[in-house]
């Protein structure tokens, strides 16, 4: 499947296809769940992103220079964000916001307490997750011929 505007979320050694996530959600709509804006904005370091003297860096989400603030303020807060679930051995699945950082920033700046969110299952997350070292369209390394 060729995507005209592929969107990817990068996290550690993985990339997540936003287009594939949207394609999974479209034929099987699910109820949106409330996402706590203050908690997620803090987790993604958005609460300190505009501080020029900040002494921390975000390990997830967008960087200070990577967030288009003007664009963020035009996003539609009614469009659900997408939360993936990563399986961590011996623990409950861990949520990861993979689509909606700009909406999250806008909601936090405007004091909106919650955003609608679609939660992917662990299996759905695996379907849209790729190893970044391999590239987004490859499942394994192919030795040179």
Strand-helix topology:
Elements: E1 8-11, E2 14-17, H1 18-25, E3 33-36, H2 37-43, H3 69-72, E4 81-86, E5 94-99, H4 101-110, E6 114-119, H5 122-128, E7 129-131
Parallel strand pairs: 4-6
Antiparallel strand pairs: 1-2, 2-7, 3-6, 4-5
Helix pairs in contact: 1-5, 2-4
Task: Name its key features.
four-stranded mixed β-sheet, 25% helix, single chain, 5 helices, three-stranded antiparallel β-sheet, globular
Protein architecture, described:
- With 145 residues, the chain is an alpha+beta fold.
- It is 25% helix and 23% strand.
- The protein is built from 5 helices and 7 strands; from the N terminus they run ββαβααββαβαβ.
- The strands form 2 sheets. Strands 3-6-4-5 form a 4-stranded mixed β-sheet.
- A hairpin with a 7-residue loop joins strand 4 and strand 5.
- The chain is globular and about 40 Å long.
- The relative contact order is 0.23.
- The mean pLDDT is 83.
């Amino acid at each position: 499947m060729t995507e005209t505007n592929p969107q990817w979320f990068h996290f550690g050694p993985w990339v997540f296809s936003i287009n594939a996530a949207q394609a999974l959600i479209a034929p099987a709509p699910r109820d949106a769940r409330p996402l706590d804006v203050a908690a997620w904005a803090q987790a993604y370091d958005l609460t300190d992103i505009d501080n020029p003297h900040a002494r921390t860096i975000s390990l997830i989400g967008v960087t200070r220079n990577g967030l288009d603030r003007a664009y963020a303020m035009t996003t539609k807060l009614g469009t659900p964000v997408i939360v993936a679930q990563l399986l961590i051995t011996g623990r409950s699945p861990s949520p990861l916001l993979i689509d909606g950082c700009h909406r999250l920033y806008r909601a936090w700046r405007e004091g909106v307490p919650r955003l609608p969110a679609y939660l992917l299952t662990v299996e759905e997350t695996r379907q849209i997750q790729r190893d970044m070292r391999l590239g987004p369209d490859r499942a394994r390394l192919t030795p040179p011929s």
